[in-house]
Design goal:
alpha+beta; eight-stranded mixed beta sheet; globular; OmpA-like; OmpA family protein; signal
């Protein structure tokens, strides 16, 4: 999670993360959250100031919202009647507008000011961009108008299950990581944007992101690490490289499975600490 002090600029991104979420929260593909619930814990005026959290809304459940940062870390904050939700920009001429909690859609980049409550962080102010709200709303509604920039074939792909057997793999880019880390290197960042740029030129292309580890460490830790690495890649592709979230299949972590090199050597382990970014085109639409 990328956490900044007050006064820092808001995250510039329009993305939708579909990666792993905290237990009890709805995943990206879930139906709209029930917004009728109200939080029982207020944000008192004397509460200690909390961090400002920047990232993408990756889950909603009642009065809780999960925000995933560019590093793949998740943070859950509570919303209540005193939370101010403000959008800026020119979408539909709204200018700067105060919104309701139902505007906080999965995939929406936000900057959240918080205070420390008895049960955890409570959001006092949520800032977002109207252009990002438009994108998130299009993805949620799936209307023809929202996806006018995409071909009908690409729109049809959105609802398909991410079974790789249904797709032709056009290319795979592997980016590597240090032991126990999920931080992207400058080289990895460059390679990710190059991959996104190439895939953008392909009709109906989707990306499938899969994280891996070497054999160092316990299996449970490696599973979480592989998922975190995949999340870091997905966030960077969407937030920095501009890859559209509805052209991303659900990412996954595979721990130390499917090694590409011998885990008995340092060189082999280095190759296995990776995230594979697969460029896919549905077999039914390849060539359209």
């Amino acid at each position: 999670m990328h956490i900044i002090s007050k006064g820092r600029g808001a995250l510039i991104a329009a993305a939708m993360l579909t990666g792993p979420v905290a237990t009890g929260l709805a995943a990206q593909e879930a139906p709209p959250a029930d917004l009728s619930a109200t939080i029982t814990e207020p944000a008192p005026a004397e509460a200690a100031e909390g961090p400002t959290i920047e990232g993408i809304i990756s889950a909603r459940s009642g009065d809780q919202m999960q925000v995933t940062g560019a590093d793949g870390a998740n943070n859950v904050v509570a919303l209540n009647d005193t939370t101010v939700i403000r959008a800026s920009g020119g979408f539909l001429g709204l200018g700067r507008e105060t919104l309701g909690a139902d505007a906080l859609l999965n995939g929406l980049p936000v900057s959240v000011e918080t205070v420390q409550g008895a049960q955890g962080l409570v959001a006092t102010r949520v800032a977002l961009k109207n252009k990002d709200l438009k994108t998130a709303s299009m993805i949620r509604s799936g209307t023809a108008q929202g996806f006018a920039e995409q071909s009908a074939a690409t729109e049809a792909l959105r609802g398909r299950v991410g079974d790789i057997d249904q797709y032709n793999v056009k290319s795979t880019t592997n980016v590597n990581f240090d032991t126990g880390k999920a931080t992207l290197s400058p080289q990895a960042k460059s390679e990710l944007c190059a991959t996104a740029s190439t895939a953008e030129q392909m009709d109906n292309a989707l990306l499938l992101v899969v994280g891996y580890t070497d054999s160092t460490g316990p299996e449970e830790f490696n599973q979480m690490l592989s998922e975190k690495r995949a999340g870091s890649v997905v966030n960077y592709l969407q937030q920095v490289c501009g890859w559209k979230p509805y052209r991303m299949l659900t990412p996954t972590g595979m721990s130390e499975a499917q090694p590409v090199a011998d885990n008995m050597t340092d060189a082999g382990k280095s190759q296995n600490r990776r995230v594979a970014v697969n460029v896919l085109v549905s077999k039914g639409l390849d060539g359209l």
